[in-house]
Amino acid sequence: METTFRYAERGDEALILGFIKGLAEYEHLSDEVTATEELLEEWIFDKGKAEVLFVLADGVAAGFALFFHNFSTFLGKAGIYLEDLFVKPEFRSRGLGKALLKELARIANERGCGRLEWSCLDWNQPSIDFYLAMGAEPMDGWTVYRVAGEGLRQLSQR
Length: 158
What we know:
Low-confidence stretches: none
Largest sheet: 5 strands, mixed
């Protein structure tokens, strides 16, 4: 199997959304997906707020990583935050997830980034085991906080 990578281009919105929905189904969060092809086009391609990398198996899009730059004040440089990584079930156990992470690490190093980081659901032991095997370290003592939707609107008016 030949493994290659390509960045998403305008016109890939349906493909990206398909991967997002596949990930949401795996995470039992399908009811939370409100993304549309139009929103993806606006935020990824028009506004440039995220990037998408596809892993191809013999020319077929088998997985994706959606990521963006964050910034570490302590390091004084940017990092890459991996929002989503997903490999279609029929392509799993072929090293494609590992290949995506390695490629993201290469990109981070090429861009001079200080780190590559992501979050993982606590119940997702297969992914946790995979990340640990890749050398990732869990960030003990940190809790993710979020304000979204109506709470975000209300906070902006306080």
